[in-house]
Amino acid sequence: MVPARSSLPKLTRNAFSLTEKIHDITQKLHLVKLLTFMLKIGMTGGIGSGKTTVGLLFEDYGIPLIDADQIAHQQARPGESAYQAIIDYFGAQSLNADNTLNRVWLKQRIFNSSIDKQALENITHPLIFEAISAWFKQQTAKYCIASIPLLAETDSAELFDRVLVIDCSPATQIKRIVLRDNLSEKEAKRIILQQSDRENRLKLANDVIINQQQITSTLVKDVEKLHNLYLSISQTSG
Fold it and tell me: Structural domains in the chain?
């Protein structure tokens, strides 16, 4: 259950029109698809699945890639689109002494409250998809990739020509999260449970890359195979 709009500051109430905004952005992205022949790949995967590693391998081929997490970080900087709305909702305690957002505090807050997690997503998600839409229009490559961790949760698969899921076992996810984020196994499991489950993501997939051991010769070959496939599809579509 999310807070009533009337109980929230104006900027945050505006941010709660998430469904309407994403619908509008969806229409814009469909128009981009109609006007261009560039293949658009939506890449997703659970936390700790290795999306960044796979993305870097595609970038080695010169493929443009935009990362939703990076957009979210950029838009939460002072003076950027989401900054004031986040402060309005979470209050001054969400700030560091230098007026930047206290990301550690925010992360803990949304980790412990599904209401706060939803509120933050309602602020950031429309802005993220607006940025991706604008970025698509600027690209001239044969294909491009948008890395969106919450692609399944935001029902945004239809915005892309193909969905690529980066997959690994839950045990591997937990191990990576614990090592990377210095969290306990219990905390890592809770984060995984807050995301769409593995089966739901795989149902959306046109393509799957298994990433159990980070960069291996098999992973490199899998990326190369998909790179060639996407080039072939884009040439056929064009």
Answer: 12-237 (3.40.50.300)
